Amino acid sequence: MSHRSNLVFKLKFINAIFLFSHYIAFREVFFTDFNFEEIGKRIRHVRGTLSQTTFGDSIDSSRSYVNNIEHGAKPSIEFLANVCLVYNVSLDWLVFGKEVQLQKLTETTPDQDLKEMTDVLKHLLESNNPEMRGWAKVQFKKIFKDHC
After folding, report:
1. CA–CA gap between residue 86 and residue 136 (Å, rounded)
2. What stretches of the chain show up as alpha helix (H) in DSSP?
3. Which residues lie below 8 Å from residue 130, measured CB to CB, with a gap of 6+?
4. Is 145 a residue whose pLDDT tops 50?
5. Angle 28-126-34 from CA coordinates, rounded to 5°
6. Radius of gyration of the chain (CA)
7. Residues 22-79: pLDDT tens digits?
8. Cα–Cα distance list, 31 to 24, 27, 40, 94 (Å)
9. Does pTM top 0.85 for this prediction?
């Protein structure tokens, strides 16, 4: 296996682990009654001092959509996923108000290259700078558009 294909495999593996870890929460989404007003309050909490426009831009949503969600409208799964990815919050907390403790991916990764890549991703996702997170997201989409 070439170095490039090995890297692509590792990145796809990271993506698969991420998607699977959120599958359980998404599965529960389709079989549960939701309190959209509570979800809106948690979105407002995540937004913090950012304007609705700035927050919306960071997750590919409009200001009016963010406003509607904060006032109890039903959010799309894409919106929820983007909030979770960009602001490093758990989907369980965002949708259900439940705190979850997931084992860190880097603790279960025996491959040193993969561990370093996940550490970089973790650092970017945990940043308090929404512009950095947004920039990183755009760069990953550009770089890996043919592989994901």
Report:
1. 9
2. 3-29, 36-47, 52-58, 63-70, 77-87, 91-96, 112-125, 130-144
3. 50, 54, 55, 58, 86, 87
4. yes
5. 20
6. 16
7. 554 555 555 456 889 999 999 999 999 999 999 999 999 999 999 999 999 999 888 9
8. 11, 7, 19, 16
9. no
